[in-house]
Amino acid sequence: MNEHTHWWSRPGLEYIDGRLHLAGRELTKLASQAGTPTFCYDAARVRQKVGLLHQALAAQSLNFRVFYAMKANRFAPIMSWLASSGMCGIDACSPQELQFALACGFEEKNISYTATSVSDGDLDILARYPEAIINLDSQSAIRRLAARCPGREIGLRINPALGLGYGGNELLQYSGARTTKFGIYREQFDETLELIAQSGLRLNRIHFHVGIGYLSHQLELWEQIVEACMGFVDQAPGLKAVNLGGGLGLPHVEGDQPLDLQKWAAIIQRHIGSRGLEVGVEPGDFIVKDSGVLVLRVNTVERKRDTLFVGVDGGFNLAVEPAFYGLPCEPLPCQVANDGWREDKLARVTIAGNINEALDIWAHDKLLPVMQEGDYLALINAGGYASAMSSNHCMRGQFSERLLLPDNS
Q1: Whole-prediction pTM
Q2: Alpha-carbon distances, residue 96 vs 68, 70, 88, 92, 125 (angstroms)
Q3: Which of 91, 224, 288, 359 could join 69 via S-S bond, C-beta 3.0 to 4.6 A?
Q4: CATH H-level, domain 13-43+289-404: superfamily
């Protein structure tokens, strides 16, 4: 396999002379300067992904707004980079996220707030931001917001009892056969509309979010879900917009096909654009995940029974999705010999982290070029739901982050 035929390779993430580069920078050099663990993000890739959404939605002549789901990655330089682009607003899910988004340069009117189990303290803060877009998912929250903000426009999060996720993983579904905490179900919908009217609030949008990581082969099911949600939309008079949430996926392993954005946008046009409503989308992972890598250093190469372990200086507490949700971060040596990817040069290894937990395995039985202790290893697709969800478990939560800006020289 040569440097240009890896399934994940693209301009900006590629081997050049045997050294893995991100955004034109050599990762071995960056890691040796910053120390490990370190997250590196390709700024140009982040904006490119937002641009792809704009292109697909605009091609369908949709009236749309993109809200970046900042829970995916709240690294301040990324937030400010997106704010300066003017291409998106923010999807926030806590008062602290809303206030942080403002500090990073986003305007209040471009922040969409959707949360669950909302406290009185949360609502007290939200009441101070009358221009923010608020979506509520319970009758309790409706009653308590109405007492604080009579006459305010709101969105209503609904639950169609249908969902989907990467690889059919039920853990990645926000709605489905199993009852979840999110949204208003069909059985409550009529009385919830009546409650909103009685409370003096004004319903102007419907919101739903049904899963994470769906790809092209799941778009038929996703369209069925969108169609089912239109039953809620058509029962609510005076709506201005429908927010589809996020969940757009990207390839995680060889064989995954990228999401067909044109087909995705065409589905939106058929069901929402045709109703003359504004469309809101809230991608997080799709925008940042493949912009980022986590670089670790190999500290142990040792065979135990029939398994060759490669131990690294970072564990699942830095990026929980591989261990918790089965969303892999493909491991790659940061430096390989010219013939390192030749089949007879590969070794079958298991990449293990440094946390004292049995689930702290980055990858099982991967064919990779032979690595030595002291080498650097990159985990790709670490730009979303990694650093933002990290913990200090075993007091091994230290890491650095760096946004790699385009070289405009």
Answers
A1: 0.95
A2: 16, 11, 19, 9, 9
A3: 91
A4: Lyase, Ornithine Decarboxylase; Chain A, domain 1 (2.40.37.10)
